[in-house]
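Backbone-to-sequence.
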């Protein structure tokens, strides 16, 4: 399959609307709708979600941009600091976006007076569907490329070269969509949501396990990591994975200790 979609979806009187922007907007809208359904279901203050949306959008963009600049190409951006603000040139790191969202949620939590881990559990569900649309945007943009492959499902990104490559963006998109479906079912059908931090912990374990595995078929993005055994994305995933395991296990250990 040859992929060569024009990144510009609409062009009218000099105004250009990119597919990346459309899919990013869908990511935000879908995450917001998931949170709204959760808030309505649990009789939480739906009107406060506008603030959460604003904080999270800012936190994700700022965190993702800074993480890309500092972790993936620090020499270039430290030499050209004004380029840090050139977001339109591309370069957002999901690890930094995740941290930015967590900080935004902490700021929001202080206003609504709800337990932080309680909110993290619910935001994790929305974040999974958000990640699906973002990776689809990366696919449309022919970015975050996979390594060359001879597999029948390899895709030629004609804007880059004529080599069939692993569609790593689609691998991640499918993983995130599957994680969203699983977390939504767990939230709706089990008591796991009563164990604050457990759903968020499971989210971290699933997302960053998938990320670690898929990085094996990605072109390394960090310019300094070509000779490393693990990519920068894999190394950055390890702390999130460990935190996820801890958050997933601790609530059940507490229950075991209480019942003794």
């Amino acid at each position: 399959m040859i992929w060569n979609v024009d990144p510009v979806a609409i062009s009218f009187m000099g105004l250009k609307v990119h597919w990346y922007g459309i899919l990013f907007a869908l990511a935000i809208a879908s995450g917001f709708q998931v949170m709204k359904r959760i808030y309505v279901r649990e009789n939480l203050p739906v009107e406060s979600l506008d603030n959460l949306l604003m904080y999270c959008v800012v936190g994700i963009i700022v965190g993702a941009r800074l993480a890309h600049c500092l972790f993936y190409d620090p020499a270039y951006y430290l030499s050209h600091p004004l380029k840090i603000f050139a977001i339109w040139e591309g370069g957002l790191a999901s690890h930094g976006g995740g941290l930015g969202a967590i900080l935004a949620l902490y700021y929001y939590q202080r206003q609504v007076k709800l337990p932080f881990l309680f909110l993290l559990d619910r935001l994790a569900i929305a974040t999974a569907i958000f990640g699906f649309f973002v990776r689809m945007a990366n696919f449309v943009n022919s970015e975050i490329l996979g390594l060359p492959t001879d597999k029948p499902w390899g895709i030629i990104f004609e804007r880059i070269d004529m080599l069939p490559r692993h569609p790593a963006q689609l691998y991640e998109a499918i993983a995130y969509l599957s994680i969203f479906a699983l977390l939504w079912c767990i939230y709706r059908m089990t008591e796991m949501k009563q164990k604050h931090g457990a759903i968020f912990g499971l989210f971290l374990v699933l997302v960053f396990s998938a990320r670690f595995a898929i990085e094996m078929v990605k072109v390394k993005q960090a310019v300094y990591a070509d000779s490393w055994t693990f990519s920068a994305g894999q190394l950055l995933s390890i702390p999130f994975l460990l935190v996820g395991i801890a958050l997933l296990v601790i609530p059940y250990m507490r229950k075991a200790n209480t019942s003794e």
